[in-house]
Design brief:
The protein is an alpha+beta fold. It has helices at about 70-75, 95-100, 125-130, 140-145, 155-160, 180-195, 220-235, and strands at about 60-65, 75-80, 115, 150-155, 165, 175-180, 200-205, 205-210, 215-220, 240. The longest helix is centred in the last third of the chain and has 13 residues, at about 180-195.
């Protein structure tokens, strides 16, 4: 392996296998000290905790590979409220109704935002990969296989100043939202510390330019060739990487 490119085709440290995140440093305790229980989420933590980098946080959007042609033609990902009929919708009618009825603290409905996850192994992706049996998924999602999907990878920095962080499903009644950099950084730090990033969503209003997608993750060489052909046809130079671990249950 040379430079900053890994054996899986990723660049700039995007690969968690070739460029693993540093393990958190655990405090040294005396042998006689009583064991400490895990901190309850939401309770105050020591002020000396390191503030996580917000702008470099990776974000992931999963879509069916058949949707790429439409996305590339438009040059952007668009919110559910603006999706064309030609898009293969993996959300059930119930999910679409809930996300159109739920509103952020900004007053805008959730379905007017493009969603991203904070981790590739998100709760929603685990459900999709396992067969999408939950009510929130469509029949199209249930008939798809994990290798039919692609990951569109970017960063919070690329999302811009209008990004909103939700600490859970954005349509759930108890979900909290952070809309400014200070609040987002604090919430992100809490989610990381409490290992609660699987359900969180990062939302961008309206649309997200495909130019800001840094990498497309696919399951196989066959999918890579298909995606590269679509990108070349649309004059996008976005890198495509085969990374099977994201697609294996």
């Amino acid at each position: 392996m040379s430079g900053t490119e890994c054996i899986h085709g990723f660049e700039n440290g995007l690969c968690d296998s070739c460029f693993p995140k540093a393990a958190p440093v655990k405090p040294v305790t005396r042998a006689s000290s009583p064991s400490r229980s895990k901190r309850v989420p939401g309770t105050p933590r020591a002020s000396s905790a390191k503030v996580p980098s917000l702008s470099d946080q990776r974000v992931y959007h999963v879509t069916h590979i058949s949707n790429l042609e439409s996305i590339l033609r438009e040059g952007q990902l668009v919110a559910a409220a603006s999706i064309e009929d030609s898009i293969l919708d993996i959300s059930s009618p119930l999910t679409r109704e809930l996300r159109s009825a739920a509103a952020l603290s900004t007053g805008e409905p959730v379905d007017r935002y493009v969603p991203f996850s904070l981790v590739p192994e998100s709760t929603s992706w685990r459900e999709l990969r396992a067969g999408a049996t939950e009510p929130r998924w469509s029949d199209a999602a249930r008939t798809a296989t994990p290798t039919d999907f692609v990951f569109l990878v970017s960063t919070v920095r690329a999302l811009g100043d209008d990004a909103v962080l939700a600490d859970g499903d954005a349509a759930a009644s108890l979900t909290r939202f952070a809309t400014d950099e200070t609040a987002i950084t604090r919430m992100l730090g809490n989610l990381r510390a409490d290992e609660l990033t699987d359900d969180a969503e990062v939302l961008i209003h309206g649309s997200f330019a495909f130019d800001d997608v840094q990498l497309v993750g696919v399951a196989s060489d066959k999918a890579r060739e298909r995606v590269k052909a679509l990108l070349d046809g649309a004059s996008f130079k976005t890198k495509v990487a085969v990374y099977p671990p994201w697609f294996i249950q």
